[in-house]
Amino acid sequence: MTALDKTKEAELVARVKAGEEVACARMMTWAERGDPRFAVAYDAFHADLGRARRLGITGPPGAGKSTLVERLALHWRGLDRTVGIVAVDPTSPFTGGALLGDRVRMGELSLDKGVFIRSMATRGVFGGLARATDDIADVLDLNGRDMVVVETVGVGQSEVDVAKSSDLTLVVLHPGGGDTIQAMKAGLMEVADIYVVNKADRPGVDRLVQQLTDILDVRDIPLQDRPPILTTVATEGTGIVELAGQIDASLAEREADGRLAGRRGENLRRRIRRIVDGRLRQDVWELAGLSERLDQGTAGLESGTGASVSAYGLAEEILSDYRERRHGETQA
């Protein structure tokens, strides 16, 4: 990387820090694409991070998460807090399609300069989702946002990992949707710092709250450490003030007793591990030539002309090739 390149990246960092939305969007695009310029820029601004409070919001589809995020953002704007929203849509296969959907769902926020909304469509690829989400949240932090909200659909481990990257995680459920079973399958019960039973004007809300209470009883969590359970009707704004107050109280408590710093440290370690794992995978497959070995072993399969291949057998052969090469490099 030349000195000129670094100068340009430093200028972009300064523009993001000054609050420029166009510069912010450009740096986010670098992050999503895995552009090496983002890593250079990150080295220049990582020491400035940490002021924003990061909130992860996840839960099964249909729970009303987007409406809840919109209501919370409107509440915070009334308190003169700036907000950044990262909306992860794992269903959209098209670039930009998710962005339009989130702009429609959060229509009251789309023209507010105090709110920056960024959508991420996975396009069926989950491997880099957590990395890119962390990076984009950092850009919003650098941009001066007071609150950064990451909204994901809680349907798999990738979304749980994204939720774990936040200072505080809300799991949103709704009555009548088999939410507790879905939440337990997705592992959401373990990541929740606050449970939100949304659409509380529907039948079954008391039953769902009791189910959550019973699950926490079974897990034998001390009363003082139990995630609070709050009810909301996001479409009407009911319970939003109470929820926002609980979020502030939980964050303040964690900051005071050191849990916030500890969580951020653990999140950073997890993030570094993800980066290293990704780089090692790339090196192993590309630099060691294992991709070519895989192509050779599976030649003809897609056209139907190749013989049947044992997945485990070929995997072991590829690993053996890699071990031999590593052994040769060590001996040299």
Provide a quick synopsis of the model.
By secondary structure, the chain is α/β, with parallel strands linked by helices.
Number of domains: 3
Helix-strand pattern: HHHEHEHEHEHEHHEHEHHHH
Quick one: how many beta strands? 7
- Please state the second-level CATH architecture of the largest domain: 3-Layer(aba) Sandwich
The percentage of residues in β strands lies in: 5-15%
Structure description:
The protein has about 325 residues and is of the alpha/beta class. It has three domains: about 1-50, no CATH class; about 50-255, P-loop containing nucleotide triphosphate hydrolases (Rossmann fold), CATH 3.40.50.300; about 290-330, no CATH class. It has 14 helices and seven strands. It has helices at about 5-15, 20-35, 35-45, 65-80, 95-105, 130-140, 155-165, 180-185, 190, 205-220, 240-255, 260-285, 290-295, 310-330, and strands spanning about 55-60, 85-90, 115-120, 145-150, 170-175, 195, 230. Strands 3-2-4-1-5-6-7 form a seven-stranded parallel beta sheet, with helices on both faces. β6 (about 195), α10 (about 205-220) and β7 form a beta-alpha-beta unit. The chain is globular and about 65 Å long.
